[in-house]
Amino acid sequence: MGEIISERIGNVMVVTIANEAKRNALDISMERPFLDCLVEADNDESIRVVVITGAGEMAFCSGHDLKEIGRPGLTFMKPDPMGHPDLMKKPVIAAINGHCHAAGLMMALCCDLRVASENAVFGQPAARLGDLPMGGQIWRLSSAMPRVRATEMMLTAEHLSAQDAFDWGLVNRLVPKGKAREVALELAGKIARNSAATVQAIKAGQKIYERQGLDAFDRFQAETYEKLKQRPERTEGISAFAEKRSPKFG
After folding, report:
1. What pLDDT score does 239 carry?
2. Among 5, 22, 174, 244, which has the minimal tally of Cβ within 10 Å of its Cβ?
3. What pLDDT was estimated at residue 112?
4. What is d(CA 197, CA 123) in angstroms, rounded to the nearest whole number?
5. SS3 55
6. DSSP secondary-structure letter at 85?
7. CA atoms of 150 and 113, how far apart (whole Å)
């Protein structure tokens, strides 16, 4: 049986899926602890960024435990907690340290940024299983990389290498094996130093444009700009720029 490990590093919360015997599959016993970690991090004002990774160097997450699917009496949580990063107001970085398949790929796509090690392998096997890519993977993949590449990946159910994923824009950083967590933390640190209100507004604005269109985004932009103007972070940011120093946000 696997476990969920949470670790706070400064203003960053690292959530690790630890189930190495099953390539860090998220079994039913891990679903609630995983969701609770994400919800708690999102509600904690002192946490600025969340990093999700898998234990070891073999896998990020291989999705659900296939041995549990269809077993009588077992019911998976709905909505799937692996899609929760998309619902969070704070930015979430996926540190992809190996195999990233099925619902694990969905989770990575629901994160805002993705750092992948050179041994990472991406896969969406639904077409080979007679299933459907869930959690919006059909449109998420087509948004994260060229549509023709995403379509080929899903229709053939063939694996995608870390290099191709980087070349096609699916991941932000391609790093040596064993370095995904470290680089993800460096990236998280850069984000955490900025205005939390602005960072969260950027994420929210992107989601509104994607789901509600330009008119809704224009309203959000106008309203949010006025709100941010009144916040102390803006005064500090402008003062820091004028004084040629790094801003100090609370």
Report:
1. 87
2. 244
3. 98
4. 35
5. coil
6. G
7. 18
Strand order in the sheet with 12-18: 3-9, 12-18, 49-54, 92-96, 113-117, 173-175
Q: What pLDDT does 70 receive?
A: 63
DSSP string, 124-169: --HHHHT---TTTHHHHHHHHS-HHHHHHHHHH---EEHHHHHHTT
CB 118 within 8 A of CB 171: no
Residues 86 and 202 in one domain: no
| Domain C-terminal end among 192, 215, 231 | 192
> What is the C-alpha separation between 91 and 85, in angstroms, rounded?
8
Name the residue with tokens 């549990």.
68
Instruction: State if pTM tops 0.90.
Output: yes
φ/ψ (deg, to 5) at 49 = -145, 150
The stretches in the chain having pLDDT less than 70 are 69-74
pLDDT the model gives residue 240: 82
Residue found by looking up tokens 């370095």 in the block:
179
Q: Do residues 92 and 74 both lie within one domain? A: yes
Residue 230 lies in a domain: yes
- Candidates 79, 143, 80; CA nearest to 112 is 143
Q: Please tell me the total count of domains within the chain.
A: 2
Q: How far apart are CA 14 and CA 185, in angstroms?
A: 9
Give the residue numbers spanning the domain of 220.
Answer: 196-242
Torsion, CA 140, CA 144, CA 147, CA 149, rounded to 10: -110
Cα atoms in the 13 Å half-sphere on the side-chain side of 206: 15
Residue 247 placed within a domain: no
What DSSP state is assigned to residue 233?
Answer: H
User: DSSP H helical segments within 168-244, as ranges?
Assistant: 180-192, 196-212, 214-229, 232-242
Query: Could you tell me whether strands 12-18 and 49-54 are parallel, antiparallel, or unpaired per DSSP bridges?
Result: parallel
